[in-house]
Here is the input.
Amino acid sequence: MVATESPVTVLNETRAWDLLAGQQIGRIVVVDDGVPEIFPINYVVDGESIVFRTAAGTKLDGVLKEGRCAFEIDTWDVDHGYSVVLRGSVAPVTEASALAQVEALPLKPWVPTVKTIFVRILPDDLSARRFAFGADPTNFGTEPEDR
Here is the structure.
């Protein structure tokens, strides 16, 4: 880490979308019967939305029941870590022309299972941060106590 660099930097929305587009795996958080559940999903960025495929089950039940979710990715390189969090509304893609559009996206099931339901996440809130790696500060901004 460069000595003058802040260890945490808030990134703009354009950079957040760039980071999202550069990854394929994220985590979706849904609430099912009052219990938060988190699932890894593979996804693709489509405009300013996230699209993923799924089948019937807890993940789909949670997103359909609440109509909202949180989605997160993280990545890193030698000097920095990155986190992007999106909160938004969720709806299955059902209209014929929209369905044809998402079926043409480069989005295949991650595991060999039948996943015929496409779901779109539209963001209400998108945030991204960069974390500069470096040495652990020994005093955390305080002087050591006298012994």
